[in-house]
Amino acid sequence: MTNTKGRVLYLATVYTHLAAFHLPFMQLLHGKGYEVHAAASSDQGRKKEVEAIGVRCWEIPFSRSPYSLKNWRAFRELGRLLEYYRFDLIHVHTPVASFLGRYLARATGQRPVLYTAHGFHFYQGASLRNWLLYYPAERLAARWTDGLIVMNREDYDSAIKMGFRPGENLFYVHGVGVDVDKFNSIVSSRSLRDKLGLKADDIVITCIAELIPRKNHLFLLKAWSRLTKKICSAHLLLVGDGVLRQALECWVNGKSVSRVHFLGFRRDIPQLVQEANIVVLVSRHEGLPRSLMEAMAAGKPVVASNVRGNRDLVDHGRTGFLVELGDVEGLAGYLELLARDENLRLALGRAGREKIGDYSLDKVLAEMDAVYSRYLPS
């Protein structure tokens, strides 16, 4: 640790999470002279992206499922890491890793520990099982948490009820940040439309989300099957991969739903967003979805489910529309309204771009820098 101010450990269940959301914050601390470490499970090869910015990475075989026996092995290996290294700050993320990490940090006498809740798994509308499992776990782990960072108002209120104190050990930040300039400056090249054989005036509705149950794609597809009967120039782009891809493709083929394009995992998200006319996200629950922030930064109108996180971003009727879960007719109606009215799309897009300035990466970096400064040695 020669010539460094100290050691910081980032902990998450999988490296995909760290690579997708936390590289700028690791770079922030690395640039300030801290030796940055990361510990997670390699799930999709994104560990190399974290290593590429100078972070020392450790393989800890977490499972996302709290019921998996793999987490016992992860518990032992993380314990050995914390016994060998002393960290000046441990920043934990994601439910399984954050619970085990906070317990082991306290057991090995390491602190301070920061926890970013990217969306508590207990929330308004969550299942009884979620409340019985995650709420008591978070109440217990609160005593091992020196600082809690939240990114939506519902979680902020829940944290206060758990005993966290605003400004002392509870901090609200505007998500993980979005590079507003990157999404605002790209000029559509029409390359994607050309590859898909779309016309210049076709309406492109894009959903960027992992194909997993939480993202609720079947709800979207049911609404889409109605919309295709009314607007023959609209195309639905599903960007992302996941365990439900085959089942969703079978549903589309079985119902003969037209103009649905499964694009899989992509790295050209700014270009895809710029070529869209409308962006949609109908998750069952969210923390603070970056796909909506990116769409708003690009000046696109959004349609989203009326759930925590989404409603922090979307002002109904001003920057987009919120629809209740299960309201297939309502979802199809909002998509049709936007598809038919270009002026409305432009107006909502402008308002969304204005609002998302508060969620820019520069501002979030400043917010996080202020939080880190409270806990790191000066």
Automatic annotation (TrEMBL):
<dbReference type="InterPro" id="IPR001296">
    <property type="entry name" value="Glyco_trans_1"/>
</dbReference>
<protein>
    <submittedName>
        <fullName>Glycosyl transferase, group 1</fullName>
    </submittedName>
</protein>
<keyword id="KW-0808">Transferase</keyword>
<dbReference type="GO" id="GO:0016757">
    <property type="term" value="F:glycosyltransferase activity"/>
</dbReference>
<dbReference type="Pfam" id="PF13439">
    <property type="entry name" value="Glyco_transf_4"/>
</dbReference>
<dbReference type="InterPro" id="IPR050194">
    <property type="entry name" value="Glycosyltransferase_grp1"/>
</dbReference>
<dbReference type="InterPro" id="IPR028098">
    <property type="entry name" value="Glyco_trans_4-like_N"/>
</dbReference>
<dbReference type="Pfam" id="PF00534">
    <property type="entry name" value="Glycos_transf_1"/>
</dbReference>
<feature type="domain" description="Glycosyltransferase subfamily 4-like N-terminal">
    <location>
        <begin position="28"/>
        <end position="166"/>
    </location>
</feature>
<feature type="domain" description="Glycosyl transferase family 1">
    <location>
        <begin position="191"/>
        <end position="354"/>
    </location>
</feature>
